[in-house]
Design brief:
CATH topology: Aminopeptidase
Shape: globular
Bound molecules: coenzyme A
Number of strands: 7
CATH class: Alpha Beta
Number of domains: 1
Number of helices: 5
CATH architecture: 3-Layer(aba) Sandwich
Helix content: 25-40%
Oligomer: single chain
Distance between the termini: 61 Å
Length: 199
């Protein structure tokens, strides 16, 4: 009779606390497809309840497809960090230094220049509250400082209380509003900014 394996073949799927923490590092071109899958899976988590499924699907298809995501990883104006658990990506942050990604209505509201945008910070639900998001954000802040940015800004839906509490704990303040389109639906996000001179 064959004995069962001592370790489950799915042991890498262990929940937080029972496996090694994810390794946070800069993403590379080889991460494109896993990152696109993570981006697609986590984008709905940031959407307010009134967002329609077809709007979310449109956004994922056009903004977070593997070709688009691959382009981030070779763009010199974009820095992506990931939380890596073996072969699996469980969180990511995306920092952009590209002024073309900033709606002109945002510029007059920003208090610090030069600036950069934390355009994404997403953690898979099992890893929320684990400290992974803190590490991803810390790496993005460090990358912003390293390139000489004095400030960093982001947009978050007002109903996304968890994200807003997280950013508030990390020194971001509400400074105004921005529009953000998801599949043709225009949302008004809180515009938050942080001084990068502060630790
Ligand atoms: C936003 C995100 C990256 C934060 O990471 P996290 O690991 O969940 O953050 P933390 O648990 O460290 O902090 C969340 C804070 O919100 C608080 N919180 C949790 N649920 C809350 C709720 N419903 N209302 C208000 N605050 C809430 C937590 O108590 C914690 O407060 P604290 O900072 O005072 O301790 C993560 O939740 C995420 O990926 N969310 C889905 C995607 C998303 O919304 N991304 C941001 C887009 S702008």
């Amino acid at each position: 009779m064959v004995s069962p394996p001592a370790v489950s073949p799915l042991s890498w799927l262990q929940p937080p606390g029972r496996s090694a923490p994810p390794r946070v590092e800069r993403a590379g071109p080889d991460d494109a497809s896993a990152l696109a899958a993570l981006a697609a899976a986590t984008f709905p988590l940031a959407c307010p309840p009134e967002t329609q499924p077809d709007e979310i699907l449109y956004h994922i298809t056009h903004q977070l497809n593997p070709i688009r995501v691959a382009s981030w990883l070779t763009d010199p104006l974009v820095v992506v960090h990931v939380g890596r658990l073996g072969q699996i990506l469980v969180g990511y942050s995306r920092l952009s230094f590209d002024p073309a990604e900033t709606d002109p209505a945002i510029w007059p509201q920003l208090k610090r220049r030069p600036t950069c945008q934390l355009s994404k910070c997403y953690v898979q639900p099992d890893w929320q509250g684990s400290g992974l998001a803190d590490q991803l954000l810390a790496e993005s802040l460090a990358a912003g400082r390293q390139r000489g940015a004095k400030g960093i800004w982001l947009g978050a839906n007002p109903a996304n209380l968890r994200a807003r509490a997280f950013y508030g704990r990390h020194g971001f303040h509400d400074i105004g509003w921005r529009h953000f389109e998801v599949g043709g639906h225009l949302f008004t996000d809180c515009l938050m900014e942080r001084d990068l001179a502060e630790p």
